[in-house]
Amino acid sequence: MSSLEIKNLHVSIGEKEIVKGFTLTINSGEVHAIMGPNGTGKSTLSKAIAGHPDYKITQGEVLVDGKSILELEADERARAGIFLAFQYPSEITGVSIANFLRAALQARLAEGEELDASAYYKRLYDKMDRLKIDRKFTSRAVNEGFSGGEKKRCEILQMAMLEPKFALMDETDSGLDIDALRIVAEGVNAMRGPNLGVLLITHYQRLLDYIVPDHVHVMYDGQIVKSGDKSLALELEAKGYDWVKKEFATASAR
Amino acid sequence: MSAPTSAPRSLTGSFPAEAFAQHLTSLAGAPAWWLDRQRAAYETYAGLPMPRRTDESWRFSNVVGLSLDGFTANPAASPTALTSPFGTPHLAFLNNTVVNRNAVPAELVRQGVVVTTLVEAAAQHPELLRAHFMAQPQKLGSGKFAALHSAFVGAGAFVYVPRGVEVKEPILITHAAAGAGSAVFPHTLVVLEENARATVVDHFVSADDAAHFACGANDLYAGHGSQLTYIGAQDWSRTSRSFQFNSTVVRRDARVQSLNLHLGGRQARHESLSQLQAPGAFSEMLALTVADDTQEFDQRTLQIHQAPNTKSDLLYKNALRDQSKTIFSGLIVVDPDAQKTDAYQSNRNLMLSDDAEASSLPGLEIQANDVRCTHGATTSRIDPEQEFYLQARGISKAAADELLTFGFFEEVLNRLESDPLHDVLRTLIQSQFKK
């Protein structure tokens, strides 16, 4: 049982503060959805936790199993169990998916220890089959020339191979048609369980029909302004984000 | 026969007339024309000044670092077992002496394939050697060093593939240096007759970490309709100084693909000349460099189109780390009657450090009017978003840079048809990142 504790987190890009006191604890086994209008700091939150160098954490803490990860480089955070599923995954020319994932797994082994290549491919092919990714993709350059759906499936494949403790999924549903969405959701649902905690960032309620969250939080202006169960997502869908904005404005005015 | 000149010591350095005379005595069995060419070359060497900062062909180079002193002109060699990641060499040289040889398959010998030393070739195939050995012009600025090579070359490989014969497995030649200050003069001469096919690999390697002086040449001659793949893998010690001169002659409908990998040396200069001499000739010139620490790699190229309907395609990629430096200077020359020339030249630099420096001097000199010539140079840094993406998967920054460098190199490595050679080159490049 692991925990990811985000305490009063403040994040700036340049001089501009984007995340303004975000607090949330995710335990393994739980799926938390974060919803909110564009520009409210959802993506910034996930990239800052993953260790993007452009995102400056000015205040607060992020703890994995009680230990701060803020002094760690992005790769160290990943090896500590954080996985960021990118909204816009990078295209890496000339690096095949097989070599990329191999390097990622090799990075998790002790110095001098070598990855068992045949076991690796067996596992890779198995995960690819489940995500309905053509096995030929192993030799293709990472994300290069992939469709939106292929890129997102490739993110889920990486998550399945790397088995993180916590997955931060940044708008994984964006750019997906309904079939791709279903495959991606199945992939995530298959990984749900006592060893994984998920932070699901989404703009739309649609994704939550497929990945049903345990908790839903509404983020506005850099912090959580409302929390509830999955019915909150439906309420949000019905009333729209203006409702949140109005409530928040009233709350701040008080 | 005239006695070698007594030139001022400042112009001959560690290679004075006595050293040259000593070299000649080691070549007692060589034919008169060879010795005459060497004497003439030595005169040229001793008469030419050292390159100057103001010489156009040495622009951006560290000419101050080009001392001729502190080397041993005729180093001794002791038998050493040399291993190469490319496999068992057919010929292995150490300090200008053959230390190991493995015959090519009997079937190839029966077909007339020759893989031997230059000295033996001079005795057994005098006409061939005389026609091709030290027969190509040097045009890229290292006249003095090219002459030094021609004066001192003794040990070298001669590869000959007769008309219509295909050699499937690569012919491997190792050129090694050992001992502090040892000067070596590697030479590989490849002659492919009409419609012959072969792959030749030169592997340049130091047997220890000492500083060596390597001054080598490889001359490639591709007869009508022949196909040659050439790999030159330079992995001298990090304190060595290296010069390598390539000359490629491509005849009618022949195709030469050469890939030079540059890893070693403190300061390494590579000059490559392709002469497209008859219609249908095609020269593909590829190079990969991983520069780190304070290494300097200086690459000068010339693509000369001397006949109509000829093609050349140059792609040189450099990855620069630390405070390293690379220089690329390339020129495409199209002669007046070389209509329908298709020439391409591209130098791409990947900067892995803010302190590294890449200079690029592409050039064209076109005297025909119906041609397609393009050239370009780009210098880019690692994309920080790509780097973050890899790091977000747990890959360290150093490993991410290595992976991205391979990604950058893949376009060149993928041009090789042979997967095993591709893999060996990858391994060599990988070892550079582990240093």
Describe this entry's structure for a reader.
The complex is a heterodimer of chains A (254) and B (435). By secondary structure, chain A is α/β, with parallel strands linked by helices. Chain A has helices at residues 42-50, 74-79, 97-106, 117-130, 148-162, 178-191, 206-210, 230-239, 241-253, and strands at residues 3-13, 16-27, 31-35, 55-64, 67-68, 82-85, 92-96, 141-142, 166-170, 197-202, 215-220, 223-228. Chain A has a single domain, classed as P-loop containing nucleotide triphosphate hydrolases (Rossmann fold, 3-Layer(aba) Sandwich). In chain A, 38% of the residues lie in helices and 29% in strands. Chain A has a six-stranded mixed β-sheet with strand order 6-9-10-3-11-12, sandwiched between helices. In chain A, helix 5 runs parallel beside helix 6 (178-191). The radius of gyration of chain A is 18 Å and the shape is globular. Chain B is of the alpha/beta class and 435 residues long. Chain B has one domain. Chain B has helices spanning 9-12, 17-26, 32-47, 106-110, 118-124, 126-132, 143-152, 384-391, 397-413, 419-434, and strands at residues 91-94, 97-101, 114-117, 157-161, 171-177, 183-184, 187-192, 197-206, 213-222, 227-235, 241-250, 255-262, 267-276, 282-291, 296-305, 311-320, 325-334, 342-351, 357-366, 372-381. The relative contact order of chain B is 0.10. The A-B interface holds A 50-54, 73-75, 78-79, 83-84, 86, 89-95, 99-101, 103-104, 107-108, 141, 158, 162 and B 383-386, 388-397, 399-400, 403-404, 406-411.
